[in-house]
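Contributing new records

If you add data, match the layout below exactly. Sequence lines come first and carry their own label; structure lines follow with theirs. Keep one chain per record. Anything else will be rejected by the validation script.
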Amino acid sequence: MKVLIVGSGGREHAIAWSVAQSKRVDKIYCAPGNGGISQYAECVNIAAMEFDKLADFAQEHAIDLTIIGMDDPLVGGIVDVFEERGLRVFGPRKNAAIIEGSKSFSKDLMKKYGIPTCHYETFHSPEEALLYLENVTYPVVLKADGLALGKGVLICNTAEEAEAGIASLMLDKQFGTAGDTVVIEDFMTGREVSVLCYCDGTHIKPMTSAQDHKRAEDGDKGLNTGGMGTFSPSPFYTEDIQKFCEEKIYQPTMDAMKAEGRDFVGILFVGLMLTKDGPKVLEYNARFGDPEAQVVLPRMKNDIIDVMEACIDGRLDQIDLQFENNAAVCVVLASDGYPKSYEKGKLITGLENFEGKDGYYVFHAGTKLTDEGIVTNGGRVLGVTAKGSNLKEARANAYKATEWISFENKYMRHDIGKAIDEVNE
């Protein structure tokens, strides 16, 4: 098979690595790709939002399967464009990707179909939002309705913070039109867990659990980011909790989307909060999480092509989804200053240290291949992932492996997976 992957981050590198393990695939392309993906795939200089150019490429090169990694093209309708041309593509159509593209849509869906989530209200004007904020209990959560690179969520502890947040999202347009509508939610407390699920429109199969670390600084301080590291599985996601989620959240979400005429085929990311009143949905995404994919995919035993094709063909129920009985931890190496301002073009050394080391991976997020070598080209530069027989060992291995890589202004959190220690104590 010939496979095309659309995207350029750590998630797409993890997908490319997984596809490269398939005995069914002999050629991989990635558009636009990055410096690390080029070791598995031929990178193609077409941007992820150039739908017609991507579809032209897929037709001209007789691509057997295109995998859409990113949220923007999915929400923009790239799957519809490919399907209209008779091309085989993995990901939800535009009318299903709205589950990530609009926070208000997903919250209304949960309310309508009785899927556990927190109380919320939706606002289309800053005046209405500010009026509502006069009578809430703090903290509250503000969410830009549209896509905001995983950063459009503000936790506000005071009225002043909330007012500033509304101004930032709705007046200053920090995230552009994503802030035209804002959802204000009650603040939930508990453990966060991410569960990625394969979906074929009718059936849904959850993968192993993971937990992301969104804040930029140690101790969950600092600004929200696209993710500073992950671990898998979550020790807090017990068999009982999984059973509850399968019965009350995962399958009901699939059934709700089908009832709305929005059959969901692809990856459904369910962000959960394990509250004292039981698991509740924080958010949905319509694709693999990044960096969650970097700890989940290396633990998957199945051929990813087999699973994705079963989703497209509506026969996911025939797949026995299996994961290794071990653990994985990913530590993101970022450019100092992320998620605000940071420098690019810093030479990365030490990548060769991962060659031939089983259970150690380095997934490229913001890198670029130049004549001098691979250089930094983004805020999140690399995801260093390591496996271990348990979470404690995987964490120690991952942090050891971060020392193998050097670049100027290298920055990382030092407490990824610290919650693991609390369980072990």
